[in-house]
């Protein structure tokens, strides 16, 4: 059964495998940590950074969860609880991904089914999804969960280049 948990040392090895699969398969819609950076000290080295992301010392405020099924690392869920310009025009309220070898089994949908109530617990009434116009799978899942298309805007980042971004509200 899938669970969303806070980042923890026990799953670092699985997290690294997930990152490696993303880099090997050139996943561009959600770029995790470069697996080369993940060594034995990586968790303790980066803990302070992720803690600061939760307190607002680093914008945008964000909460990072890992998705695991028993011993297996499945994917991740990131939640940004405010709506600064970076969230509105680039990364959205939600970042999520499933490791390539586990895609197409319902895990992506399940991550959001468990993640959206967490957003509500953080006091959010709605979340913004920003989805590359060519990312049909993610758009399908977002619409399945009630996403209402607001508009499409032009966007740019290093991984995706110039692209069209769909923006959806999901009301909680
Ligand atoms: C998006 C992502 C998380 C989905 O994870 P997943 O575990 O494969 O998703 P699920 O198995 O729950 O659901 C896939 C859905 O897409 C549908 N689908 C598959 N191919 C499709 C296509 N070409 N067009 C539209 N829908 C498609 C499936 O039928 C399924 O829908 P259903 O449950 O209604 O039948 C995963 O593809 C991923 O990690 N992608 C890279 C990162 C990413 O894009 N993150 C989101 C950024 S906004």
Order of helices and strands: EHHEEHEHEHEE
CATH topology: Aminopeptidase
- Separation of the first and last Cα atoms: 23 Å
The molecules bound to the chains, other than polymers, are: coenzyme A
| CATH superfamily (homologous) name | Gcn5-related N-acetyltransferase (GNAT)
Largest sheet: 4 strands, antiparallel
Low-confidence stretches: none
CATH first level: Alpha Beta
Total helical segments: 5
How many distinct folded domains? Answer: 1
How are strands sequenced across the largest beta sheet? 1-2-3-4
Class computed from helices, strands and strand pairing: alpha+beta
Could you please describe the fold and organization of this structure?
The chain has one domain: Gcn5-related N-acetyltransferase (GNAT) (Aminopeptidase). The chain contains 5 helices and 7 strands, in the order E-H-H-E-E-H-E-H-E-H-E-E. The chain has helices spanning 12-24, 42-55, 85-91, 107-121, 136-144; strands at 2-6, 62-69, 72-80, 94-98, 126-132, 148-157, 161-171. The radius of gyration is 15 Å and the shape is globular. The structure holds coenzyme A. Coenzyme A (COA) binds next to strand 4, helix 4 and helix 5.
């Amino acid at each position: 059964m899938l669970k969303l948990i806070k980042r923890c040392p026990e799953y670092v090895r699985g997290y690294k495998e997930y990152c490696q699969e993303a880099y090997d398969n050139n996943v561009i819609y959600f770029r995790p940590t470069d697996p080369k950076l993940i060594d034995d000290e990586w968790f303790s080295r980066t803990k302070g950074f992720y803690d600061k992301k939760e307190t607002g010392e680093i914008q945008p405020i964000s909460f990072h969860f890992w998705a695991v099924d028993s011993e297996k690392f499945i994917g991740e869920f990131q939640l940004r609880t405010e709506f600064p310009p970076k969230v509105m025009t680039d990364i959205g309220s939600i970042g999520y991904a499933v490791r390539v070898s586990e895609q197409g089994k319902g895990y992506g949908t399940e991550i959001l089914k468990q993640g959206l109530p967490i957003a509500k617990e953080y006091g959010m009434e709605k979340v913004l999804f920003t989805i590359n116009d060519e990312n049909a799978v993610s758009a399908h899942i977002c619409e399945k969960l009630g996403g209402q298309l607001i508009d499409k805007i032009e966007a740019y980042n290093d991984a995706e280049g110039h692209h069209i971004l769909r923006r959806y509200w999901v009301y909680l």
